[in-house]
Amino acid sequence: MVDGAGRESRGIGVVLVQLGTPDAPTARALRPFLREFLGDPRVLEMGSLARRLLLEAVILPFRPARSARMYRRIWTDAGSPLAVFSRSLAERLGAALGAEFHVLLGMRYGEPRLGAALDDLAARGCARVLIAPLFPQYASATTASIHDAVFAHFAKRRVWPALRFLAPFPEDGGYIDAVAARAREHLGDRLGSLRVIFSFHGVPERHADEGDPYPGHCERTAAAAARALGLRDRRWSIAYQSRFGSTVWLRPYLKEELERLAAEERGEVAVICPGFAADCLETIDEIGHEGARAFRAAGGKALHLVPCVNDSPRWVAALAALVRAECGAWS
Fold it and tell me: How do the domains of the chain map onto residue ranges?
């Protein structure tokens, strides 16, 4: 196959895309990361002037130091867990797909940059590129933002590759199997006796009112995972976390759901996060640390956080199948 510039195409490029992570658990590193992240109009949907004033006058003077403290609680010798797991996933996926595919990691915000990955694939001669957002459920603030960034990257370039975008996969059998396997590995025989919460990152309720399919995708993922785990209807529920600002977000809020279950049963609860393909600040710290503390303070005994699929073999196999299916005509 020959690309638009007359060069021989050398394989299919695949870019795994996460939202991103700061380079270090410091306020200095968090400030530019948050400015880029929260400066995205898909993330803070308001006028540009209002968004800039909110960022510069309210968020950036205070939040970087607070976020840095949280990141320090989860930081590893190899760096941010999100970056570590995502790099490993890219390497393992490349090995699973074989020499025809060139698999790279790109971040929507921060390093390694999405644009740099796209340029790298162009330098390798990849005239066909699959963009694979690592979000099982579609949301305009995540998936659509990645689409925006890809098209903006190529807008001023004379030569474009053939592009495909991996579709959302809220009920994909391989992904659900990987989620269920992680729960069984982590919880063992306790699974049948625990109340289970499937926690997803929240979005403003207005997004759903205006047509974003995200809550429906989350409900489908949770129901499929519950079936795979054999959970009875009364033993599991859905909650949304990571609320930001004063607007109404999708409900129930995770903190309120944890407090409700603690007051009702005063037992143990398991939290599974099938909206996150890799463990990160929102899972390890927000749930594993802050959520567990709130649950115990409300009378609960213990919170068991199930690790995300990360770079597990079942997830690598499931993602390889999704990529091959999407690139079938190319292969």
Answer: 12-169+313-326, 173-305
